[in-house]
Amino acid sequence: MRTRWILSFIVVVLTNIADAQKIKLPQIVKDAALQSNVMLESITTAREGNTALISPRTIENGKLKVVPSKDWTSGFFPGELWYLYAFTGDKKWKTKADSLTTLLQKEQFNSGTHDMGFKMYCSYGNGYRLTQNAQYKAVLIQSAKTLATRFNKKTGVIRSWDFGTDVWQYPVIIDNMMNLELLFAATRLTGDSLYYHIAVSHANTTLKNHFRKDYSCYHVVDYDTATGNVIKKMTHQGFADESAWARGQGWALYGYTMCYRETRDKTYLQQADSIAAFILHHPNMPEDAVPYWDFNDTAIPNAPKDASAAAVIASALYELSGYSKQRQLYKKFANKIMLSLTNNYRSAIGDNFGFILIHSTGNKPGNNEIDMPLSYADYYYLEALGRGKGRGKGK
Ligand code: GLY
To answer: Does the C-beta of 69 come closer than 6 Å to ligand 1?
Structure first.
């Protein structure tokens, strides 16, 4: 019995090594660099002289959609340029990354959004990690300070959206877990534990209220600020209130893996393992391991895929494989995702204005960004690529 177990373990390890070798880092980075050159040119054209437009988000009506710094996606393309610099060491990418990153500077004071982590940690956070630029450090600290103003002691969580006050009172979305990385970093950078405590409170309250018995999660939880109680649980971007929106499950997996990295609290590791089990063993997970946009869309298998969810999940699984007893299983699944994305979900060089991946879904219920390239799919794909090869942050 023991011998059989050892043999199958060796087979899994060897398969993982073989799969990892099939993901050819130098060629993919070379292709990503070519596409990013195309993107830099496409941005200049699409801006039509409007310098407030900074980062690419998607393709809309056949045109590249470039968004201003306040958009939640503005940090992803600068982050991709930092990853290219990290992969190649080529100063050209540092120069480009520097110039796009600094265009987001004013966002450090924007208290009207919870998306501070997405915007500033993907751009300035990677920039600081790779350059130790003191100005970047100052921007990150101010960004965390601003984000902390959205924390409410009564609810114990950071408010997500300011819009929709007719629908909810104090909405918190699962995506918000991603912003905690900035708060953990701010405590390290300042020595002030306030940010850490806010992050832990948010993670604990979300763990209590956002998850179902099967460890899938709701998209939105609405809180009563007078009592701190939950008013309702619902969706905004998913198929139904009780469904499992694929990217949301990805944010949850990534969020609790990162919280374990930052705190070493075993509760977060168990949570991440349980979320991973829900995702990996879901009966509607397709053979190629790139999920449909929502695990419960009744149109499956005739539903759009979401390559962005796949990239987030792959990146999280590579990191989680470094902490969990399920190391080989997570590596195997992440490799499978990365092989699928690499072989079947990449743009041809020169196509799609320079986006790397195709077939993502941003907001299906909003009839928006369905089966499209999305900048965050590209960002997490490159991040996962680095993590899978033992490079980059959270490796
Ligand atoms: N944070 C928004 C999204 O995942 O679409």
So the answer is: no
Backbone angles phi, psi at 50, to 5 degrees: -80, 100
Give the confidence band of 395 by pLDDT, cuts at 50, 70, 90: very low
SS3 217: strand
Question: How far is 79 from 85, CA to CA, in rounded Å?
Answer: 10
Mean pLDDT value across residues 32-46: 98
- Determine whether 364 is exposed, middle or buried from the number of CB atoms within 10 Å of its CB (0-12, 13-18, 19+): buried
> Separation of 173 CA from ligand 1 center, angstroms?
9
Residue tagged 């966002």 (tokens): 107
**Residue to substitute in 158, 219, 247 for testing ligand 1 pocket (most ligand atoms within 8 angstroms of CB):** 247
pTM for the structure as a whole = 0.96
Give the pLDDT mean for 385-392. Answer: 86
Q: What's the Cα-to-Cα distance from 202 to each of 137, 191, 352, 388, rounded to whole Å? A: 23, 20, 38, 29
Question: What is the arithmetic mean of pLDDT over 85-97?
Answer: 98
Residue 295: which of 348, 235, 210, 347 has the closest Cα?
Answer: 235
The β-bridge partners of 294 are: 245
Q: Is the CB of 237 under 6 A from ligand 1?
A: yes
pLDDT tens readout for residues 216-242? 999 999 999 999 999 999 999 999 999
- Ligand 1 centroid vs 176 CA: distance in angstroms? 9
List residues with catalytic annotation: 115, 175
Contacts of 287 (CB under 8 A, 6+ apart): none
User: What is the number of H-type helices and E-type strands within the chain?
Assistant: 14, 7
